[in-house]
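STRUCTURE:
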């Protein structure tokens, strides 16, 4: 029976207007202040700093009466800049301002410091200089670990660190040291000099490693037709500040671009952010901050040094910079409830029961609930599985799961690796091949695989001493269907897909995007149905919240994979597909990718404490509190 087509009508979701906060004289001073006046605004969490920032932005864009009842001229949207600490928060600010603003901006109003620095560096570079590209923490971590695990590194480090070189923890320590040095504007030569002054052999070795890493990166990029300069956010921001400090004409050009700058959550800034702001010498700036709510110390945030910076920043300007305090939180006092559990699984079940109870008894939407954990990992995965099995729809924020480790993405990557010859079809790799066979892309389940093995044993020729694993691998290698062994054609969809993928992989002009698209658009299940159509149909037509949530999440991950591949192709047009897959597989920390995601709808948000900053929900479950672990109030040092 032929399925009837599903008719869909796309409708834009109604978004809330900016909520108003109770007016006071302090709020009025911030909101209606002259566009050319600067201010520092502080306040506790929940005091309305972000909402006031948005209202201030709208007031500047629309004009109106100021404090002295004079009519202020509206600012052109392209001349207003909002800066904040993360890309996701910048997106949220931009959307909330755009919803209520009547004017149209030609460029993004809200940006991160790194995005602003990138624009400044691009303005300052000569045409014959390699174009810079921003690398993520995940890419930097992968680069450091690959170099540390090479056999040439052992003799370059003090003997007491040799055994630590291959560990993930040491790579993290080294990346943090290099990042902090860059935030303070230090080069590897500066770090080596400091190490010699302090007689610290670890710093000297780290500085020399940093130099080798930069040299290897230059050699690697020069091997492609369109070489780029890989640069991390800390170095990029310091470089932008350096260009501004050295070029008076560039400084005047950048300063003249914006009539007013609004900065949210400035407590998350590090020395490089503050250096850039000082070097820009903006016409007018309003800074919102709360040093007590800093969550990015591990990334270099320096709330202790913020007061001194603001004092120095004000002293350099001719105008008086009033500091305004919004006071305490405007939110109602939260109702706290402690739930004890002896295991992670028990804790996850208790969380599910509590969220379902609040949804059914109190009528609170799932979208108004969140589960916050200390860091991504197995704890978060256990909670996600338990909530899904309890028919509680969930959405896991991006950046809390590794792309290459996703069950939806693994089969795509595996097929591409087989087609490129990265993973040879030999007995040693059968465990990974079996994982592919048992996925939706392979079309088998444990029962079908067992039946296939029985057919092989029943129909094999005398003297054929190969194991069933070897026979299956040979069939996949030859891209042929085993007629006597596979009467049901169980392997046909996969062998056909491997044949298509191998054809694309053999084309020297093919990019990683071409290869992945060939796999994704032609993958079929054991019934011959196209997988990408099935996933879309699950989202549209399924009545199971669990199935809809899983399909929605998987489609988002596929979109993210193609976005990562597209960016790689655009940034490195001559790089080989194998290099992309190698980098993707070796990435061990969670990255941040610019890619569209589906609307979360009425789902519980699963996030980390760092990703949760700047968001609010009616019900928040903080999972994993354990004395001495989280929060950990012990004094902690580091190896480097």
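SEQUENCE:
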């Amino acid at each position: 029976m032929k399925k009837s087509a599903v008719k869909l009508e796309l409708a834009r979701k109604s978004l809330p207007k900016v909520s108003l906060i109770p007016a006071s004289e302090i709020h009025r001073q911030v909101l209606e202040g002259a566009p050319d006046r600067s201010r520092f605004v502080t306040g506790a969490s929940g005091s309305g700093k972000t909402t006031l920032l948005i209202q201030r932005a709208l007031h500047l864009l629309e004009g109106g009466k100021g404090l002295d009842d004079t009519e202020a001229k509206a600012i052109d949207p392209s001349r207003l800049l909002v800066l904040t600490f993360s890309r996701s928060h910048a997106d949220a600010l931009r959307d909330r301002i755009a919803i209520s603003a009547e004017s149209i901006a030609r460029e993004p109003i809200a940006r991160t410091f790194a995005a602003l620095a990138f624009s400044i560096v691009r303005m300052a570079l000569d045409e014959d200089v390699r174009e810079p590209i921003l690398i993520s923490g995940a890419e930097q971590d992968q680069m450091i670990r690959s170099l540390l695990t090479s056999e040439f590194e052992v003799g370059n480090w003090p003997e007491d660190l040799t055994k630590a070189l291959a560990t993930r923890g040491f790579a993290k320590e080294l990346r943090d040291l290099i990042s902090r040095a860059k935030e303070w504007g230090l080069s590897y030569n500066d770090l080596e000099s400091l190490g010699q002054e302090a007689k610290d052999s670890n710093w000297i070795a780290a500085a020399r490693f940093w130099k080798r890493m930069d040299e290897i990166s230059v050699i690697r990029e020069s091997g492609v037709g369109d070489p780029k300069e890989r640069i991390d956010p800390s170095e990029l921001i310091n470089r932008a500040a350096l260009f501004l400090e050295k070029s008076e004409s560039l400084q005047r050009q950048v300063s003249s671009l914006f009539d007013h700058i609004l900065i949210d959550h400035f407590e998350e800034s590090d020395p490089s952010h503050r250096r850039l702001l000082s070097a820009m010498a903006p016409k007018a700036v309003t800074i919102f901050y709360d040093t007590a709510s800093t969550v990015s110390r591990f990334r270099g945030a320096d709330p202790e040094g913020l007061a001194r910076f603001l004092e120095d920043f004000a002293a350099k300007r001719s105008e008086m910079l009033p500091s305004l305090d919004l006071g305490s939180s405007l939110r109602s006092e939260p109702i706290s409830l402690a739930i004890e559990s002896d295991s992670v699984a028990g804790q996850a079940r208790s969380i599910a029961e509590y969220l379902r109870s609040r949804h059914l008894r109190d009528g609170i939407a799932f979208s108004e609930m969140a589960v916050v954990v200390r860091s991504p990992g197995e704890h978060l995965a256990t909670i996600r599985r338990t909530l899904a099995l309890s028919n509680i729809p969930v959405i896991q924020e991006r950046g809390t799961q590794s792309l290459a480790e996703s069950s939806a993405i693994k089969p795509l990557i595996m097929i591409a690796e087989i087609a490129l010859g990265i993973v040879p079809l030999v007995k040693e790799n059968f465990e990974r091949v079996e994982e592919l066979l048992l996925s939706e892309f392979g079309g088998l389940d444990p029962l079908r695989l067992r039946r296939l093995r029985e057919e092989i044993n029943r129909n094999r020729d005398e003297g054929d001493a190969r194991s069933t694993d070897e026979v299956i691998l040979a069939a996949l290698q030859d891209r042929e269907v085993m007629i006597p062994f596979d009467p049901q054609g169980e392997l046909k969809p996969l062998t056909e897909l491997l044949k298509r993928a191998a054809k694309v992989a053999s084309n020297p002009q093919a990019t990683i995007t071409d290869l992945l698209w060939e796999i994704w658009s032609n993958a079929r299940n054991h019934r011959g149905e196209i997988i990408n159509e099935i996933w879309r149909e699950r989202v549209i037509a399924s009545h199971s919240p669990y199935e809809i949530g899983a399909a929605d999440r998987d489609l988002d991950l596929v979109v993210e994979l193609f976005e990562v591949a597209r960016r790689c192709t655009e940034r490195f047009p001559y790089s080989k597909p194998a290099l992309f897959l190698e980098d993707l597989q070796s990435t061990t920390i969670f990255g941040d990718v610019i890619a569209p995601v589906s609307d979360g709808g009425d789902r519980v948000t699963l996030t980390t404490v760092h990703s949760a900053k700047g968001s609010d929900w009616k019900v928040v479950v903080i999972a994993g509190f354990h004395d001495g672990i989280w929060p950990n109030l012990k004094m902690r040092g580091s190896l480097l």
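REMARK: The first helix runs from residue 25 to 31.
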